[in-house]
């Protein structure tokens, strides 16, 4: 994923995140609570791995694509994260979200990019 693609996906995510994709979402902090669902949808598009890092007492999920870390929801935190890059998976990331939130975000991103996925 190059810089242009990274910017495009981030802008699409900001437009797509809502209270429907995370119950923690706020207008002031749109990335809040979006890490699991975002990591899943980004993996659907770009492949790669899902990684996790402990933030306070909770797991924070993000992507690793071609050996490079992509954390599209890091803006939800006030502090700089100390990434542990612990191996994770879709099952763990799904524990942070639900099927409805995932389907809504995937549909919104699909429309933004005019992509089609096999469900």
From TrEMBL:
It holds the Pfam family YunG. InterPro entries: YunG-like. This is YunG. It comes from Bacillus thuringiensis serovar vazensis.
């Amino acid at each position: 994923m190059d810089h242009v693609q990274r910017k495009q996906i981030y802008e699409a995510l900001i437009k797509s995140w809502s209270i429907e994709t995370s119950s923690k979402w706020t207008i002031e902090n749109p990335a809040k609570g979006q890490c699991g669902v975002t990591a899943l949808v980004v993996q659907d598009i770009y492949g790669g791995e899902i990684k996790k890092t402990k933030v306070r007492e909770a797991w924070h999920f993000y992507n690793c694509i071609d050996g490079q870390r992509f954390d599209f929801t890091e803006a939800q935190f006030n502090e700089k994260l100390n990434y542990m890059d612990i191996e994770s998976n879709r099952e763990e990331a799904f524990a942070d979200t639900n099927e409805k939130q995932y389907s809504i975000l995937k549909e919104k991103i699909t429309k933004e990019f005019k992509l089609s996925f096999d469900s």
